[in-house]
Design brief:
The complex is a heterodimer. By secondary structure, chain A is α+β, with helices and mostly antiparallel strands. Chain A has helices at residues 2-13, 15-20, 60-65, 74-86, 96-100, 103-106, 127-138, 149-160, 176-186, 197-201, 235-244, 256-268; strands at residues 29-31, 34-36, 39-41, 50-52, 116-118, 123-125, 208-209, 212-213, 224-226, 231-233, 278-280. Chain A folds into two domains: 4-69 and 165-280, Cytochrome Bc1 Complex, Chain D, domain 2, CATH 1.10.760.10; 75-160, Cytochrome Bc1 Complex, Chain D, domain 2 (Orthogonal Bundle). Chain B has helices at residues 2-19, 46-54, 86-89, 92-100, 141-151. In chain B, helix 2 crosses helix 5 and helix 4 crosses helix 5 (141-151). The relative contact order of chain B is 0.21. The chains are: A alpha+beta, B mainly alpha.
Chain lengths: 281, 156
């Protein structure tokens, strides 16, 4: 709430900016006939009142690509991950499937609760960390690089198994300091342009910034297929780009900082449906 | 004789300021958010100012501001107020202050500071994502003057 007030004050200071605060569109998202929640009232502790999926801020053409898996270009990559799931790799001679069985069963709901505290590592981990632990320790294979094709495809396949489920992360206990760190990052005005995530995604969602209609910056659709670079983009890849665009020294995908930020941003989208793999501009 | 010496001293001082070149970002004096004198010491060129405002690698002002007067340039943002009429709403000194460091005029504003080189958190080397090795202001003193000169032409 504190931040909402600050945002309102900033907006009223320039009456025009307030007047321009446009709502997301009023479309509803159904993928192959199944409705997904793209709008939900936020919890009382949330700085925003209403939460909207990024899908609601996109053009009709971009939106349409996500309503049918056959049209959704992300599925080319998901298909590759289906193959990878069954492929034996590494010294241990195992495939993901040998231990986990059908991905539809074993990975159901996993993405909705990511990132999460891992007691063994003593850290908050993203889905990529879990995949790489299996690859290195259980398969004795090379780890996949963060934000690269193999990893993003597997993250999309895993995320798909939670599609339609509400984002619901655990920010309590040992995860709490990570959550707090992420929150602090969210409001830090990085770079020579001195812009925080909140400058754009909290104070100005609904407004155009150059050619882009600003959304609330949720991660419920990640990895996301972007028309701009015609491939899957990871959560951390997006964070990296958004910080870089403030003329800042950005952070690395997989870094502690980005995992903390991911936890906080996931919390901001709690209740929205997982949309993985989404399509964006 | 006394008079002549004084006169000489004064003209030397005036000449001294004129050749001192641009005011550095650290030594700009803001009074209620406004900056009285030209930052470069010279007057601005409005046509160059217009170009800076619409160019992505320079002012990129239209990322956040719309304007009828700039309708020929593609993509106008809605983050800040419409620029038409700013030449009526603000004095030249106020506009100079707003462009150089808008935070002096509007506390906590999202508008970036275009003539500032310190106090940044993790400044980058342009848009590469790498750390900055040297920080120049986003716009030079003369570019600020050019932008101000153009904005002064935006009268209703």
């Amino acid at each position: 709430m504190r931040h909402m007030i600050a945002a309102l004050c900033a907006a009223t200071a320039s009456g025009l900016a307030l007047a321009a605060l446009a709502e997301p569109d009023d479309q509803s998202l159904a993928v192959d006939g199944v409705e997904l929640v793209t709008e939900i009232k936020a919890s009382d502790e949330h700085p925003l009142d209403m939460l909207y999926s990024g899908w609601r801020f996109r053009t009709d053409e971009t939106q349409a690509l996500q309503t049918d898996d056959f049209d959704n270009p992300a599925f080319i990559f998901v298909e590759q991950a289906v193959d990878a799931w069954d492929t034996v790799e590494g010294e241990a001679g195992k495939s993901c499937a040998e231990c986990h069985g059908a991905v539809e069963e074993s990975m159901k709901g996993v993405r909705a609760g990511m990132p999460k505290w891992d007691a063994e590592a003593g850290e908050v981990w993203s889905v990529e960390n879990f995949v790489n632990r299996c690859r290195t320790e259980r398969m004795q294979a090379e780890p996949w690089k963060w934000d690269k094709a193999d990893m993003n495809a597997m993250a999309a396949l895993i995320g798909l198994q939670s599609r339609g489920m509400p984002v619901d992360v655990d920010v309590s206990g040992p995860a709490e300091p990570w959550f707090k760190r992420g929150e602090e990052m969210y409001y830090t005005r990085y770079g020579q342009l001195e812009l925080s995530c909140a400058s754009c995604h909290e104070e100005n969602y609904g407004n155009m910034i150059r050619a882009d209609h600003l959304s609330q910056g949720h991660i419920n659709g990640f990895p996301t297929y972007r028309l701009k670079n015609t491939k899957l983009n990871s959560v951390h890849g997006r964070f990296k780009g958004c910080i870089r665009d403030t003329r800042a020294h950005t952070f690395k995908p997989g870094s502690e900082e980005f995992r903390a930020l991911e936890l906080y941003v996931a919390w901001r989208g709690e209740g929205l449906a997982v949309e993985t793999p989404s399509v964006r501009q | 004789m006394k008079q002549t010496v004084l006169g000489l001293v004064i003209s030397a001082v005036i000449a001294g300021t004129a050749i001192a070149g641009p005011v550095s970002p650290q030594s700009v004096v803001y009074a209620d958010g406004a900056v009285a004198a030209s930052l470069s010491g010279a007057t601005g060129d409005p046509s160059s100012g217009r170009e800076i405002i619409i160019t992505k690698g320079q002012g990129n002002c239209i990322a956040c501001h719309a304007s009828e007067a700039l309708a020929d340039a593609a993509w106008h943002g809605e983050v800040g107020p419409v620029l038409d009429g700013v030449g009526d709403r603000w004095s030249e000194a106020e506009l100079r202050g707003i462009i150089a460091n808008a935070k002096m005029m509007f506390e906590g504003t999202v508008m970036p500071s275009f003539y500032k080189t310190d106090g940044f958190i993790r400044p980058g080397d342009g848009y590469t994502g790498e750390p900055a090795t040297q920080i120049d202001p986003i716009l030079s003193a003369q570019q600020i003057e050019d932008v101000v000169a153009y904005l002064m032409t935006l009268k209703e």
